[in-house]
Each structure stands twice: as C-alpha cells, then as structure tokens.
Amino acid sequence: MQLHTARLCLDCQEVHEAGACPVCGSESFAFITRWIPAPERRLTARAERAPNDVDTYRQLLAADGASPKTHQWLKRGAVVAAAVTVAGWLFRPAPKKAPMARGPANATPPREPERQS
Ligand SMILES: [Zn+2]
After folding, report:
1. For the purposes of burial, counting CB atoms within 10 Å of the CB of 68, is it exposed (0-12), middle (13-18) or buried (19 or more)?
2. Ligand 1 mean position, distance from CA 18 (Å)
3. What's the 35 CA to ligand 1 centre distance in angstroms?
4. What pLDDT does 92 receive?
5. Segment 25-62, tens digit of pLDDT
6. DSSP the chain
7. CA 20 to 30 Å from 93, out of 43, 63, 100, 106?
C-alpha cells in the first residue's frame, strides 16, 4: 500500500485504500497524507531522468535554432528566383512579326486596292 493512496477509516480507524472500509463497510475516510505528507514518487524518477531530458531538449532547441536559417535561405532563394523570372519577362526581346521578318522571299506583296469601275 502506498502512502499517497492510504485511507484511514473514520469509524474503525482501519487503514485501507478501497472506496469503502473492508472491515466495517463505512465510506467515511480521510487520506493519511492529510497528516503525513507524501512527496510525489515521480519527482525522484524525473530527477534521475533529468540529464537525458536536458540533452533531448538541447537537441530539440538546436534543431529549432537551425531551422530559421534554413527558412531564411529558402526565402532568399524564392525571392531571387522570382526576381529573375520577372526580369526575364521584362527584358525579353519584343516578339517579331514572323512573315515580315523572314525577308522578302516569304513576304507577300502588298495588295493593290481593288478598283471599282
Ligand atoms: Zn472501518
């Protein structure tokens, strides 16, 4: 029986940990920790685990610390790619009119206006 679950029957002073007293069946009880404080068992277990936890947290923090730099470089790369694309659109050569640019061989002679008689 653990101290933090131990109950004192208020009718027959039996110590138990059930919902009702196993001796007299009374449901009135008080936790023993009311008079005897019981420290949490988890505190000591966590203290033993603390160095590993600290290392884990350091690794997590280091990983988080590295990610903003990566995000910065990704952002810069995206900005540069967008700028190059926009510059390419802005400074691209003007579209040529294909039939006229190829030369006089393919050029169609200008039409003479039809004469009406
Ligand atoms: Zn009892």
Report:
1. exposed
2. 11
3. 18
4. 84
5. 999 999 999 998 887 766 655 555 566 777 887 788 77
6. --GGG-EEETTT--EE-SSS-TTT----EEEGGGTS----HHHHHHHHHHHHHHHHHHHHHHHHHHHHHHHHHHHHHHHHHHHHHHHHHHTSPPPP-HHHHT-TTTPPPPPPPPPP-
7. 106
State pLDDT tens for residues 73-107: 999 999 999 999 999 888 888 776 666 555 555 55
Task: Name which of 1, 3, 21 is nearest 11 in CA terms.
Answer: 21
CA–centroid distance, 32 to ligand 1, in Å, is 14
pLDDT at 115: 67
The mean of the pLDDT values for the chain is 80
Q: Cα(12) to centroid of ligand 1, in Å?
A: 4
Domain ranges of the chain: 1-64
